[in-house]
């Protein structure tokens, strides 16, 4: 059986069409399937439309979360409740085309892979968003030493082995594409052009995108804390250079008049220290969230 996990937040304009096209695509293969829709605290009629669709389609399982817990938590809930031999993970904004789900399934069956990810060959989204995402993928790929696959998001299919491996992760600050690459196993890919949203507003604002990027980098790279070390070493070298310059200036009678040199030195070291404190604070905050060990989500009701 194939389980398709879809997180939804205020997608009343798209949800019916998404499910209709998904049912048509899955029906062509003649494979048993279930669709696990996670309502992540929607305040519009998304849940009502899901329940109406379920009246005639009993393969639809609905998880209604007690409030909005965020995309990664909603995805985790769907993965936890999926029961299929293969699990497809896709976004609910129609930017992951439903007709590619059978393509993912055929690919994982034909190659014997454990994971098949959909790589975005082209993106038909706003220019500013494409720029942000391309910059993130370039930085993330370099900081992780090439262990992450560029231009991949949540859209993928995993088998039972990979599914069980992902369910073992208990971290609070999570980035599912990073976890998917971290577990290893045999990984294959398909290429597709990612369309823009058909209707409605994007739920991932710039702030949320930057927060997700920060979680990904802090969780899978040691370079932020390494940067503190390298900047500190650079500061020490500059400090010794300043000492040599000051002594030479005194001896040669070229010592500058005024406070400009002192002001620049204080500003430099002060900004470096504040940068260090900020980076360390990010790690301390994430450690604090992990130590709290709060549940990632609460399910208000399951419709199955």
UniProtKB/TrEMBL annotation:
<dbReference type="GO" id="GO:0005886">
    <property type="term" value="C:plasma membrane"/>
</dbReference>
<feature type="domain" description="Glycosyltransferase 2-like">
    <location>
        <begin position="3"/>
        <end position="164"/>
    </location>
</feature>
<keyword id="KW-0808">Transferase</keyword>
<keyword id="KW-1133">Transmembrane helix</keyword>
<feature type="transmembrane region" description="Helical">
    <location>
        <begin position="227"/>
        <end position="248"/>
    </location>
</feature>
<dbReference type="InterPro" id="IPR029044">
    <property type="entry name" value="Nucleotide-diphossugar_trans"/>
</dbReference>
<keyword id="KW-0328">Glycosyltransferase</keyword>
<feature type="transmembrane region" description="Helical">
    <location>
        <begin position="260"/>
        <end position="285"/>
    </location>
</feature>
<keyword id="KW-0472">Membrane</keyword>
<dbReference type="InterPro" id="IPR050256">
    <property type="entry name" value="Glycosyltransferase_2"/>
</dbReference>
<protein>
    <submittedName>
        <fullName>Glycosyltransferase</fullName>
    </submittedName>
</protein>
<dbReference type="GO" id="GO:0016757">
    <property type="term" value="F:glycosyltransferase activity"/>
</dbReference>
<dbReference type="Pfam" id="PF00535">
    <property type="entry name" value="Glycos_transf_2"/>
</dbReference>
<dbReference type="InterPro" id="IPR001173">
    <property type="entry name" value="Glyco_trans_2-like"/>
</dbReference>
<keyword id="KW-0812">Transmembrane</keyword>
């Amino acid at each position: 059986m194939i389980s398709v996990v879809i997180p939804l937040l205020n997608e009343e304009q798209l949800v019916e069409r998404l499910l209709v096209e998904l049912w048509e695509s899955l029906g062509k293969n003649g494979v048993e399937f279930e669709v696990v829709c996670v309502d992540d605290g929607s305040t519009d009629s998304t849940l009502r439309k899901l329940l109406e669709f379920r009246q005639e389609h009993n393969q639809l399982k609905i998880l209604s979360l007690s409030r909005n817990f965020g995309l990664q938590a909603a995805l985790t809930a769907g993965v936890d409740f999926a029961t299929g031999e293969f699990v497809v993970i896709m976004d609910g904004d129609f930017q992951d085309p439903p007709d590619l789900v059978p393509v993912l399934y055929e690919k994982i069956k034909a190659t014997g892979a454990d994971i098949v990810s959909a790589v975005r060959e082209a993106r038909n989204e706003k220019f500013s968003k494409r720029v942000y995402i391309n910059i993130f993928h370039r930085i993330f790929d370099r900081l992780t030493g090439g262990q992450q696959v560029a231009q991949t998001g949540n859209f993928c299919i995993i088998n039972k082995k990979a599914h069980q491996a992902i369910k073992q992760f208990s971290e609070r600050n999570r980035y599912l594409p990073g976890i998917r690459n971290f577990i290893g196993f045999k990984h294959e890919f398909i290429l597709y052009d990612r369309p823009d949203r058909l209707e409605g507003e994007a739920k991932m604002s710039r702030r949320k995108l930057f927060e997700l990027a920060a979680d990904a980098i802090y969780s899978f790279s040691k370079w932020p804390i390494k940067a503190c070390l390298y900047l500190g070493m650079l500061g020490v070298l500059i400090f010794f250079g300043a000492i040599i310059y000051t002594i030479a200036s005194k001896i040669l009678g070229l010592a500058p008049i005024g406070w400009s040199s002192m002001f620049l030195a204080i500003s430099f070291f002060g900004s470096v220290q504040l940068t260090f404190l900020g980076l360390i604070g990010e790690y301390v905050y994430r450690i604090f969230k992990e130590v709290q060990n709060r549940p990632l989500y609460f399910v208000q009701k399951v419709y199955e």
